């Protein structure tokens, strides 16, 4: 990868992914293509960001399809290292971030953001990009990576794109393919819940607990297994005493065995 | 710093220091000068590698003198950031390394190598050097930084120089200035102990405990406050069942209030 990069000139746009590319990834590639001379997509299902009992083994993989999609989408190169190449058997370096990894996805996925910070640091050092592209669907990840870049002084600009959705509002995700037909229908409840929250807030509701309660009731029509419903400050993920300013509404919900996330950013 | 570097061309040699430069640092600068187009010395007393009750506040500082020494020694630039510039008030990113930070200096200095890995990662990302220079006196630090570079995929070559010693054998160190005349004389016991160990081993002794015992007896003529005496494998810092192969003998000893370290590498 380094040899390839060293031969090329100009700015590098980097899209790190775990593969099984969908429209969200391709929107990242498209943006990277517009803003850089060289576009590199990495495909690596990173074991260190999966916890015990999570879907590391089952996570969908299709390198041939992904490579074709990345190429058609505008990538100049795909970086798809093996696990052994990235983590040697004695690997013992971990990049840890505190301050914004205490709630939301961090609570139910211990080690998740350590895994992300470690792999992102490694990939940034390998690719040395000018810009790296992340989807706003992983809102906490975007904040974590921005903090990582600022605090470890990476010379990388983090660029984001809005959530890409299916026609019925479901946020696109590699994990959507786990859903059977019935679950696929139920899964629209995440977006419907966010729309409901927006509506209530636009009508004047400012109490966090009231909005959460209404979201919760709606979701419970489809599933009892809610991981979290959070309404927090956009930039710090800290709790709000009232819904005001730059607000992030974030959800994680199990539809059957599949954990799905979604979020909405509001200026109130 | 980045603006300065981006204007220059050619390879970058980087010498990270905590300042109060001595002959050891200048030997690093000299080597960097020989091997690179641009030589950058950083001077930063890194608070995160000092523990509670350690000498962060007292650590000697003299930026004016250091800048002149670095320049005379061959540096093109000195990077001396403030603590606030390096660590913002919300700073929460830590780079942690496991496997070689469980013994030697790590035992008595919890958080020490986390502090080193974090600041080294930050400085590497700011300076983006081709080569970075470290003294073999900090043998464990050299191993830790090499592992860090390998595992976070920094595109930096780690270069080392042998321990620089005073005429009577004392390893040069910024902390030597803490010693009063009597302590300065006692301090030679570290090197004398290493010489004794070498002699015994050359005579055929292969038992770790016997060599440690003899070192210990000699040191106790000067001080009762021994932090550690370790005889371990050079590359892994793991315990040896017998003294054979590439061996590191490492000492940390308090002379008065001052903690001094020294080491010797042997091929047996």
TrEMBL record, chains A, B:
Keyword Ligase among record annotations: yes
Coiled-coil blocks: 194-221
Molecular functions per Gene Ontology: ATP binding; pantoate-beta-alanine ligase activity
Cellular location(s): Cytoplasm
SUPFAM superfamilies (alphabetical): Nucleotidylyl transferase
EC number, as in UniProt: 6.3.2.1
Cited function: Catalyzes the condensation of pantoate with beta-alanine in an ATP-dependent reaction via a pantoyl-adenylate intermediate.
Family as reported in the entry's similarity comment: Belongs to the pantothenate synthetase family.
NCBIfam families: cyt_tran_rel, panC
Protein name: Pantothenate synthetase
Organism for this UniProt entry: Halanaerobacter jeridensis
Taxonomic lineage from the root: Bacteria, Bacillati, Bacillota, Clostridia, Halanaerobiales
The gene coding this protein: panC
